[in-house]
Amino acid sequence: MFEKEVDMQASQPEPLALDEPLILPFAPEAVACGFPSPAEGYWSGDLDLVQHLVRDPTCTFVWRAAGHSMTGAGINDGDLLLVDRGIDPVPGKIVIAVVDGEYTVKRLDVIQGRTVLVAENLDYADIVLHEHTEMSVWGVVTWILSPAKTKRGVRPRL
After folding, report:
1. Is residue 4 annotated as part of the catalytic site, yes or no?
2. Candidate list 4, 37, 69, 93, residue with the active-site label
3. What are the beta bridge partners of residue 107?
4. pLDDT per residue over 19-52, tens digit each?
5. Do residues 106 and 118 lie in contact, with contact meaning Cβ atoms separated by under 8 Å?
6. Is 149 a catalytic site residue?
7. What mean pLDDT is predicted for residues 75-88?
8. Which residues contact 96 (CB under 8 A, 6 or more apart)?
């Protein structure tokens, strides 16, 4: 339904070069986001982030997001996006698309029989594809890597 091939340009990212696994200590249990539970105080082993985050290293690329049209999907200006070119671009997925030669990140959808690239910020217009619009899907966003946000001040308590 959606064409996935696009000519590679020199400005596009290279596939991940993974000579070694990226292994970090892995906590023994999930951390409570509600009422805290007593900590065990030991690690249960290691976690290879590449194995956990990357389906196929030869098809996975990293892009940096620029702009604010996808904030509702949790993508902020400067975030890193892991993009897999081997995943089928189906409606509902967030994709890197090439529209009339320009790259954009949007949510892919079909609305009333038309392909639409949906902005996840109401301040930005969706891209409704017309018969003369050239569009291809470059890849599917699989992970959004963003730094933890720092908030100043404390919310008032009741």
Report:
1. no
2. 69
3. 94, 118
4. 677 666 666 666 667 666 555 555 567 778 888 8
5. yes
6. no
7. 94
8. 63, 81, 83, 103, 104, 105, 137, 138, 139, 140, 141
Q: Are 80 and 146 in contact (CB under 8 A)?
A: yes
Instruction: Tell the residue number behind the tokens 């906590």, with chain if given.
Output: 27
Asked if residue 62 lies in contact with residue 81, where contact means CB atoms within 8 angstroms, the answer is yes
Question: What is d(CA 135, CA 89) in angstroms, rounded to the nearest whole number?
Answer: 12
Instruction: Give the DSSP per-residue string, the chain.
Output: ---------TTSPPPP--SS--EEEE-SSPPPSSS------S--EEEEHHHHH-S-GGGEEEEE--SSTTGGGT--TT-EEEEETTS---TTSEEEEEETTEEEEEEEEEETTEEEEE-SSTTS--EE--TT--EEEEEEEEEEE-PPPP--S-PPP-
Sign of CA dihedral 153, 148, 90, 9: positive
Q: Residue 71: what are its φ and ψ, rounded to 5°? A: -60, -30
Of 106, 136, 146, 151, the catalytic one is 106
> How far apart are the C-alpha atoms of 139 and 141, rounded to whole Å?
7
Q: Distance (Å, rounded) from C-alpha 58 to C-alpha 15? A: 6
Question: Considering the entire predicted model, what is its pTM?
Answer: 0.76
Place of tokens 């949510």: 107
Residue found by looking up tokens 């959004």 in the block: 144
